[in-house]
């Protein structure tokens, strides 16, 4: 089984796109490159004689690998950072990086202005704070910038190990690299629950100098950590311990620890585990995983000067272009409005000329004063004639056909007894004046009206009969009394 296949068994996930990862440990510099498709393309190891020579080693590693024009993730070993646990300040992430140096100033000897810090919340509600000197971070950035390399993040190594077993929610890891100490880490859901440096354990554990006392001491320290986790973190059940130690026979180490512990012990890589150093695994993990913290915070990153001469010239140029476009657009709109106004003015002129012509025609059709006076006289004449017609309409039917029938009836009725000297007929009013042979003739004469077509239905309100000295009888018969007339 080759190196590529063994790395693929880690089942890593990629959450940030980078092409290079650099790991700086006490024993050497590790550089890993990807092909952009989550596959390892190249890996390089530069050993260090002592941990303080990391700057020279990094320069050599960049030159040997031809590192340039790329983005990198950096993983630093414990010799380049410190770690403390403090009460959680409950600050927003954007305020945390600025406040942490002041919160840990009593725990360190460096000045607040000379350190950078970031932290992650722990399972017990506290915060694990990681601190590095500002000069270390700036040296890293300046050195890599000389190769046109952009730094994405700088992360402590112990947090990167949390991504080594994606298929298990909780596990412990015993790790060792050259020049460092044995370190025990415990993780749950990719969160660090325990980090211990086992200072009483000296390498090598296996090989020709192997002895049971070393294994007993190591197993005792591991069991103490398991008991601590069990007592302090209720509900957390860790049943797996993995080992990744440089220059050790992992098969023998796993076998000896399995005899002394009540948990399952296994190498982090099963096939020929001595092939891969801890730093090589960290470089692979750092290549494809997003860190929880970043010691290269925004305050250290180059600030973009938005008011540089070039940007000002460009902004003025863009402003002038847009101003020209807006000016041209509004000028075009003004021309369109002017054309529309000219068209409306022309239409208005035409309508005024048409109105003037119609007014002249109207003047020719207006009547003269003489005609208006004649019309008024005719209207008055019409009204007079309408009044006359209304009077005529009030005449009864007998009057409309003439008085011949009435006169004929009166002649027949009064023949020999009645002599009429005056007859007045107007509408419904009928008055008679005359002489009678005797007084009783008059009532009988009136009664005989009921038998005549032209006299039937007429009634009288006044009857006056007089007899003079000579015995001549005269009468007056009126439909109305003198007072009603």
Report the CATH C-level class of the largest domain.
Alpha Beta
For the biggest β-sheet, the strand order reads 3-2-1-4-8
Number of strands: 17
Give me the number of helical elements.
13
Distance between the termini: 151 Å
- pLDDT under 50 segments (min length 5)? 11-16
What is the global morphology? rod-shaped
CATH architecture name of the largest domain? 2-Layer Sandwich
Coiled coil: 334-361
Keywords: Coiled coil
Protein name: MSHA biogenesis protein MshI
InterPro entries: ATPase_NBD, MSHA_biogenesis_MshI
Tell me the layout of helices and strands.
Elements lengths: L2 H6 L11 E6 L2 E7 L5 E8 L6 H12 L4 E7 L5 E6 L5 H11 L11 E7 L4 E8 H12 L3 E8 H4 L9 E7 L5 E7 L2 E8 L13 H21 L7 E6 L4 H11 L3 E4 L10 H11 L20 H57 L3 H25 L3 H4 L3 H10 L4 E9 L2 E8 L4 H7 L14 E6 L5 E6 L7
Parallel strand pairs: 1-4, 4-8, 9-12, 12-13
Antiparallel strand pairs: 1-2, 2-3, 5-7, 6-7, 9-10, 10-11, 14-15, 15-17, 16-17
Protein name: MSHA biogenesis protein MshI
Keywords: Coiled coil
Organism: Aliivibrio sifiae
Please characterize this protein's 3D structure.
A hairpin with a 5-residue loop joins β2 and β3. α2 packs parallel to α4 and α6 crosses α7. The protein has five domains: 196 residues, Nucleotidyltransferase, domain 5; 100 residues, Nucleotidyltransferase, domain 5; 44 residues; 31 residues; 77 residues, Gyrase A, domain 2 (2-Layer Sandwich). The protein is built from 13 helices and 17 strands. With 485 residues, it is an alpha+beta fold.
